[in-house]
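To: structure desk
From: M.T.
Subject: fold request, one chain
Message: Could you run this one when you get a chance? Sequence is below, nothing fancy, just the single chain.
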Amino acid sequence: MPFFSSNGIRYLRTYLSRKLSSLPKPSNLYHIPAKKRSKVIRLAQSALTDYFHSTRSLPFVYAEHIGKNSFYSLHDPISKVEVSLPTFAKSFERFLRYHPINEFEFFFESIGITQEEISGFLPPNKFFFAEDGRILNAAGALWSFGFPWNKLGILCKEEASIFSKDADDLSRRLCEFKSCGLNNVSVVGICLAFPFVLGGNGVLGVEARALFDDLKRVFVDSDLGSLVEENVNAWYEICRKIRLFYDLGCEKGKIGELMGKSRNIFIQYPEDYLVRKIDFFCRLNVKKADIGLLLLESPEILSFDLEAPVISVMGFLKHFGLELQKSKSVARMYPYILGRNKMVNLPHVMRALDLHEWFFGMMRSGNHHLLGNYVLSHPDEDLDKDYIDGLERIQSSKTPVHTINKLNFLHGIGFAENSLTMKVLEHVHGTGSELQERFDCLLHAGLEFSNLCTMIRFMAKILNQKPEILERKVDFLIQEMGLSLQYLHVFPAYLCFNLENRIKPRYGFHAWLAENGLCATNYSLSSMIATSDKNFIARLYSIHPAIPKLWFEYYSHQKD
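Reply: Done. Structure tokens follow.
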């Protein structure tokens, strides 16, 4: 069974392509002097355009788009032609006539597919547009409607089936969208943000109809369309912001009126700003669709500073009205979370206290204004002198940056600016990013956030191991021992012992003794593993004097 769904693979491919596309592309044009290189490339682009138009009979506008926008695909054929500026153009034209190129490779680069991605889109065993005219015809229909040629790759990446559709069918589908009261520019922006609307066969699907019902309410009924500049980029940007809420899980066809009432957020805030605000609440680990509804119902939240302010955890809980008895319980159970922290870490503070759902419920019930008007009651509120002293020692140490990064990791998972956090800091090893990776590994294994923080408070060394080692220990605990993750709350030190040299041999030997009726006592896992070698042998001897010899033989065999 595959590890990723098709959507997951598509997302992963898109993510990686964005990362890789920013890297310098390999070039095989180094043999061309730098001062001549740009001239040679322009000549090659012109020759390629003429080749597609005159030799391959493509309409000139298509040939020109491909010729001017396939910069990296040109490198290979250019490198095979002798460079002499007076004769290069004719030499390159002659090379193209006698050395056919893969036309689809040049096409896909021209529409915005990166070199790293192109191989995933090339039709198998086909080199010429004449072998599969649907791709170019579909691109032509989209371009004729108003899609920028170099943005067609956006559609291809998310809904490749668009380019196997009949050009007339595409044109009819696009005109159908205009019947919602939209023009060509707005339809193009919508399709670029929601490529799925151009996919599928036959009539418009239920999901697409629901989306356009929402968008009609937003752009036409609420008149947001009149506030958008009349160009594709502006419409695409607005629609990408709208898509953020659908990506959270908000139901298409159900939030059009709500988005219309909050239309200004799509004009006022940049996309990356909205993403940061959404991410803040997503870290609460609550239903994402509810986050979308919260921000649409109470858009003033978006103006709150959710990063820089300093909070006193207990003061913040009091500000939000946590009842006195619950506050006392929190203080007793989670002393390492109490103290100062930054607002940006609030979601994980709430998860560490197991109050994230309570907090989000308060936000949804109309108390969101409390998040915006919170301030420290006085400048020295919850200021921990021991923490300040520890911070000064770090700043004067040999590796202040490394240690501060580790400290920031601890604050990021909810640990406050207090002396208990400083004690935990002494026992964790690795960079801040490595510690985060190990923490995430245990979180993804199924441990509850709050419980994991408590485990770290008492046994910080569990974070001093690579993720793959932690995974193997957790798998052995569950799959081989048949225990649940809850056992780690009682015995977190299990994760600190060597799996091959300690856990497996001792557990296996105890299981063998029990199976053979040699040991009637049901020892706990901690008793099996945490006992020193001397006491372990003594216990085996108390069962039977001959058993230690069997253990040494068994252990020696296990090591071999």
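Reply (cont.): Confidence is low (pLDDT under 50) at residues 1-26. Let me know if you need anything else for the meeting.
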